[in-house]
Amino acid sequence: MSMLLLDIDHFKAVNDRFGHQTGDEALRAVARLCQETLRDCDLFARVGGEEFAALLPSTTEREARAVSERLRGQVALRVIPTRAGEVGVTISIGVSEFRADDDFKSLYNRADQALYRAKNAGRNRVMGSDTATALNG
Ligand SMILES: Nc1nc2c(ncn2[C@@H]2O[C@H](COP(=O)(O)OP(=O)(O)OP(=O)(O)O)[C@@H](O)[C@H]2O)c(=O)[nH]1
């Protein structure tokens, strides 16, 4: 099992530029796109303002990174039609794989640290927790 933590990049700037209501529309569009891309057995939930988590059963970190890369690419390409016009956003994703000695908190913390590195490395990228290397360079 693997965990993904997804966070929309520079979302404050989206709100500032287009307004909070448009920000909400973008949030819903990103959530819908992710849900459509993930499998029925995957669990997808909002865990904060512009942050989402996904739990992928029977999935290695390597596989989860490939899924994340697909999600990232789809969001980056998507033009979101809103009442304020067309909006584009990107997401950063941190990935961790469940280990024998893990509990939910340690699994979450590793994904959160990976997400932090993805943000620091420039955003719009995927980071795994077993390596500091982004899949998409
Ligand atoms: N429209 C809208 N905005 C929200 C919601 N929840 C949180 N936000 C906004 O999301 C923004 C998050 O900003 P930050 O945490 O600073 O991060 P960021 O601007 O996305 O930048 P990075 O995450 O560092 O790439 C804040 O401006 C919040 O007000 C929501 O439900 N709707």
UniProtKB/TrEMBL annotation:
Positions of the GGDEF domain: 1-131
Keyword tags: Nucleotidyltransferase, Transferase
UniProt key word Nucleotide-binding: no
Enzyme Commission identifier(s): 2.7.7.65
Pfam families per UniProt: GGDEF
Recorded catalytic activity of this chain's protein: 2 GTP = 3',3'-c-di-GMP + 2 diphosphate
InterPro entries for the chain: Diguanylate_Cyclase, GGDEF_dom, Nucleotide_cyclase, Rev_trsase/Diguanyl_cyclase
Entry annotated with the keyword Transferase: yes
One MF annotation (Gene Ontology) recorded for this entry: diguanylate cyclase activity
Record protein name field: diguanylate cyclase
Source organism: Marinobacterium aestuariivivens
Lineage per the UniProt record: Bacteria, Pseudomonadati, Pseudomonadota, Gammaproteobacteria, Oceanospirillales
